[in-house]
Amino acid sequence: MCICVNCHYVDRCTTYHAVEHQHQQPHLTEFPDFEAIEPTINVNIRHQGDIIEMEWDVVGCQSFKQEMGKWARLRPGELVPT
Ligand code: SF4
């Protein structure tokens, strides 16, 4: 689970923007202007037959500022990315 979904900066952050790109998700913003300090990204690689899936999760970040449900508020009714 990516900690970014509960982070104040999720809709401005260049790191989360890259994670969205990896997951082929629509971006919360096209022009992120916040640089996170030392984000730690966990990459899981899964094999499903011939298909290789990569899952990127931010698991730690010095810039993390807790704002519970931030992502969900920006995209009401949509499934929160895990
Ligand atoms: S936790 Fe870090 S990487 Fe994730 S949105 Fe917040 S500032 Fe960006």
Summarize the structure.
The chain is of the alpha+beta class. It is built from two helices and two strands, in the order H-E-E-H. A two-stranded antiparallel ribbon has the order 1-2.
Strand order of the largest sheet: 1-2
Summarize the biggest pleated sheet.
Answer: 2 strands, antiparallel
Q: Could you tell me the radius of gyration in angstroms?
A: 13 Å
Count of DSSP E strands?
2
Task: Work out the helix count.
Answer: 2
The end-to-end span amounts to: 5 Å
Label the structural class: alpha+beta
Give the overall average pLDDT: 94
Order of helices and strands: HEEH
Bound small molecules, deduplicated? iron/sulfur cluster
How would you describe this protein?
The protein has 2 helices and 2 strands, in the order αββα. It is of the alpha+beta class and 82 residues long. It has one domain. β1 and β2 (51-60) form a beta hairpin. The chain is globular and about 40 Å long. The termini are close together. Bound molecules: iron/sulfur cluster. Iron/sulfur cluster binds at residues 3-4, 7, 9-10, 13, 15-16, 36, 39, 58, 61, 63-64.
